[in-house]
Amino acid sequence: MMMPSILGENLFDDFMNDFRLPAFPDVDKELYGKHAKNLMKTDVEETEKGYEVDMDLPGFKKDEIQMELNDGVLTISAAKGLDKDEEDKKGNYIRKERYAGSMSRSFYVGKHVTVEDVHPKYENGILSFSVPKEEAKPVEEKKNYISIEG
């Protein structure tokens, strides 16, 4: 059973937008500067067996990314902290655009999806994984005969 979407019919519409949760304007801009709009951009391609997902996570290391699946909701989180050496440096910065912070994005993928179904791979700043479609259950044609009296 797929969750109905208020904003569109795509399985991968943003989960948070479907519920009209209050927005926190410019939080990601405070964390990641003017380039925040370029983070966590996601491409979803529908295939015969499921969906192929590519998500941009530039500048993150593999151990800074976490994926969690709960009740059909897949959440991808990425957290970045600056090195202690970077924080301790005293200098005359002309420009500083690197920040510490975290971000996440959630998708409703269906309760049929298990952790074993998702095989993530992270290379060159791109997290790639696939999500299977729910198999259509065959509709059993049932004949309801009515007995005739007499």
* Average pLDDT for all residues: 75
The class by helix and strand makeup works out as: mainly beta
Strand count, sense and barrel status of the largest sheet are: 4 strands, antiparallel
Strand order of the largest sheet: 1-2-7-6
By oligomeric state, this entry counts as single chain
Radius of gyration: 22 Å
Cα distance, first to last residue? Answer: 45 Å
Number of helices: 3
Assign a percent range to the helix content.
10-25%
Overall morphology? rod-shaped
The ordered H/E elements are HHEEEEHEEE
- Spans of at least 5 consecutive residues whose pLDDT stays below 50 are 1-10, 13-29, 84-88
- Strand content bin: 25-35%
What is the count of β-strands? 7
